[in-house]
Amino acid sequence: MSFAAKSFLAVSTAATVGIIYYVHSNQQSDRERLRMGIERDLERQQRKLENRRELDRQAALTVQLEQEQQNERRTITTTTTPVSNVASKFERQGEKASSFYINQTMMRDRRNARAFLRKATPTGP
């Protein structure tokens, strides 16, 4: 075998080994990236599920809070006396209700309602 043939055989063998090594390492890195992608997808799905549960929990708490606030408003509304009721109460007793007294009564009821709301409204997280 001539020197040129031996050198061509050596170079082609080295090139073949290099190509095989490159393809093999490329496949390994592709497999690793696929594995990491699957793990990321599983983590993402887990976070999405946790976020969904938290959103549902917060929605339930919001509904509960709104119901409590409506109940408090109903309580305040039933405890306050409208102007017509105050006036009719005095007229039934044979007296005329003065607008000053009616205004004073309404202002007192509003102050009481505001104070009740301040106490009943939760502050902070």
Automatic annotation (TrEMBL):
<dbReference type="GO" id="GO:0033617">
    <property type="term" value="P:mitochondrial respiratory chain complex IV assembly"/>
</dbReference>
<keyword id="KW-0809">Transit peptide</keyword>
<comment type="similarity">
    <text>Belongs to the PET117 family.</text>
</comment>
<dbReference type="GO" id="GO:0005739">
    <property type="term" value="C:mitochondrion"/>
</dbReference>
<dbReference type="Pfam" id="PF15786">
    <property type="entry name" value="PET117"/>
</dbReference>
<keyword id="KW-0496">Mitochondrion</keyword>
<protein>
    <submittedName>
        <fullName>Uncharacterized protein</fullName>
    </submittedName>
</protein>
<dbReference type="InterPro" id="IPR031568">
    <property type="entry name" value="Pet117"/>
</dbReference>
